Amino acid sequence: MTAGRRPRLGDVFPDLAADIVALLRARDESDPLADSVEDLPFHGVCTCSATCTNLLTAPPGSSGSRMVQLERDGEDVIWLSLDPSATAIADIEVLDGRDLGPAGRRPE
To answer: pLDDT tens digits for 69-107?
Structure first.
């Protein structure tokens, strides 16, 4: 990572990023959001509560009211909150219980 730049989601969470792309493509092969997932900046883990499972891909408070719900076998596994223009992913809520490792944990 260079000074002043955030790490990319695809570098910090490669498996999660690949899953999101695959789930978006399964819904719509030409979904433009899928093209952006790997390069999303990782702004850290949401600290709003001890149980929050959101990963921020924009500064806190950047999301609008639109959300994309991604399912696997009929169950919601990931929610993507979009920015107010609905053209960029502002945060990712991971619902499938996966272990995101040290980068997915809140600082103590």
So the answer is: 999 999 999 999 999 999 999 999 999 988 888 888 766
pTM of the model: 0.89
Q: Determine the Cα–Cα distance for residues 61 and 31; give it in Å rounded to an integer.
A: 24
CB under 8 Å to 81, separation ≥6 — which residues? 54, 63, 64, 66, 67, 89, 90, 91, 92, 93
Burial of 62 (0-12, 13-18, 19+ CB in 10 A): middle
Across 23-104, the runs of DSSP E, i.e. the strands, are: 44-45, 54-56, 67-72, 75-82, 89-94
Q: Residue 2 carries which side chain, given as an amino acid letter?
A: T
CA–CA distances in Å: residue 35 to residues 43, 46, 48, 53, 74? 19, 24, 29, 23, 24
Burial class (CB in 10 A: 0-12, 13-18, 19+), 108: exposed
